[in-house]
Amino acid sequence: MNSEDINAIKKLLSVPQKIVIVPHKNPDGDAIGSTLALWHYLQNKGQQATVISPNDYPKFLKWMPGNEYILNYEKENRQAKRKLNEASIIFTLDFNHLGRVGQLEEPLENSNAEFIMIDHHQEPSDYANITYSDVTMSSTCEMVYNFIESLGDTSDITTEIANCLYTGIMTDTGSFAFPPTTSRTHRIVANLIDKGAENSKIHNEVFNTNTPSRLHLLGCALKNLVILEEFNTVYITLSQEELDSNDFKKGDTEGFVNYGLTLNEIVFAVIFIENKEEGIIKISFRSEGDFLVNEFASSHFSGGGHNNAAGGRSNLSMQDTVSRFKSLLKNYKNKLNP
């Protein structure tokens, strides 16, 4: 963060404020971890803060300290709207376009609050009064740590804040395996452990709480895996019927797409998941090396994200979506080399 923005934020927070903190729709570990960490920090500084999530999120994230105070905009709409109307400052975390918040988009657009964005995705829009954007960062949680450090308050990082930040960094780096994980990331993680982050417990809470139905769904997904050797690509499909027959719960397919990249010579992995309620096929893209899935997603599937991890969507049927995807690969053959 530059000194001008730091000074502006210090001035804003020097007096009592009514603050709302918002993650993106279908929030993941980085989104929930960063918003709750910031919520704890602001509460401890004497600010009146509220986290409003656009919708529900996976059960394996609901152990985090402060989770019980998050308002679900879909289920607690009246209370959430009141908080938004009262807000003097709105922090938006882990997204950079208001289109990423579902039904929250309109009330945010109509708000007169000061907006502060903290995010690590590419091509940020300009809705915020103060924008802290850095695409080189491993996670928004790492950025929230930097935010607290810039304000001179690392000594105020509590065990609760440390647990939330560790969770987001761990999940968004693939347990510290993805390329944006730097030596600085590891030093921050070490500091968080020193502050009380329970790394072993966090790993168990996030990764070792499977249900039999989720493991059955994983088996179904892997059975559906198709290898396109010519393009060093794999894809997985999951129909609504397959989700329903395996008692699908939000978050159950988290990480499924990554299994494709464990295969030798595979550069590009994709999962197509049918969502009949929304009338779309949700798509997750992952890659190794220099193949930029964010560009692929934005060019063909109304999506975006990071260089090696992105998302998109299709309004076509599953069959037509997969056919379109396969037809596109010939245009990228030279870029899909291991």
UniProtKB/TrEMBL annotation:
Residues 18-169 form the DDH domain. InterPro entries: DDH_dom, DHH_sf, DHHA1_dom, Oligoribo/pAp-PDE_c-di-AMP_PDE. Residues 246-327 form the DHHA1 domain. GO terms for molecular function: nucleic acid binding. It comes from the Bacteria. PANTHER family: BIFUNCTIONAL OLIGORIBONUCLEASE AND PAP PHOSPHATASE NRNA. This is Bifunctional oligoribonuclease/PAP phosphatase NrnA. It comes from Ulvibacterium marinum.
